[in-house]
Amino acid sequence: MSQKEKIYIEPSIFAADFGHLADEAKRAEDAGADAIHFDIMDGHFVPNLSLSPKGLAAMNRATELYLDVHIMVYQPFEYIERLIENGADCITFHIEATEDVEETLEYIRKCGVHAGLAFCPDTSESLIPKYLDKCDKLLLMTVHPGFGGQEFIADVLEKIKFTRGLCDKLGVRQGGKVDPKLPPFDIQVDGGVDDKTAPLCIEAGANHLVAGTYLFKGDNMQEKITGLRG
């Protein structure tokens, strides 16, 4: 992937002030974010609970930004229609959370939104080739999902390099299509992304960076977003 390609920055609203989520979404929008990353957890797939589909509806009313929904839940198929009804522009679920991966990806796309597939840090990259043409992006977690503020897992950089190299070798571009006129296939990272780890992710081949604590803590979000793009 050329370093001239755009790097997309998505503030994770899970790290925002829950008492002022609408204001926090507007702050991210005004700071130049490309999307809001919205986490949903069920307390089973990961040992934590977070925002709900109703919260997503409120977020949809608060911002014009693209809503990128990351669901850390078992039986993700059951969430799809509710999330779309409440404003999801993309739904990303975990390969580890269901045996019906292809069916779930196909249904998300059939409903008219983008479909993403997430991989936990310990999940083998050998599973990636099977799904490149069936999803719109891959999310390679750089922390173990479920909690914010974790330390970046550097070993995932090799998985990012493998995935970008595979896309380049096979000619897979945006949306899983083989079309050289399209932008690069979307590889997203989430967890521990800051001014030090972002350049490593970009160099390895990621073009979508999710950052939570780093962006929402303190001021100067616009400056931080600009810095993450490199």
UniProtKB/TrEMBL annotation:
The EC number(s) this enzyme carries: 5.1.3.1
GO MF entries: D-ribulose-phosphate 3-epimerase activity
UniProt keyword Cytoplasm, yes or no: no
Pathway(s) where this gene product acts: Carbohydrate degradation
Residue positions of the active site: D39 (proton acceptor), D190 (proton donor)
Domain of life assignment: Bacteria
Catalytic activity line of the entry: D-ribulose 5-phosphate = D-xylulose 5-phosphate
Entry's cofactor comment: Binds 1 divalent metal cation per subunit.
Stored SUPFAM superfamilies: Ribulose-phoshate binding barrel
Keywords, comma-separated and alphabetical: Carbohydrate metabolism, Isomerase, Metal-binding
Residues that hold a divalent metal cation according to the record: H37, D39, H70, D190
Cofactor(s) required, per the database record: a divalent metal cation; Zn(2+); Mn(2+); Fe(2+)
NCBIfam families: PRK05581.1-4, rpe
Stated role: Catalyzes the reversible epimerization of D-ribulose 5-phosphate to D-xylulose 5-phosphate.
Protein name, entry field: Ribulose-phosphate 3-epimerase
Protein source organism: Candidatus Neptunichlamydia vexilliferae
Gene: rpe
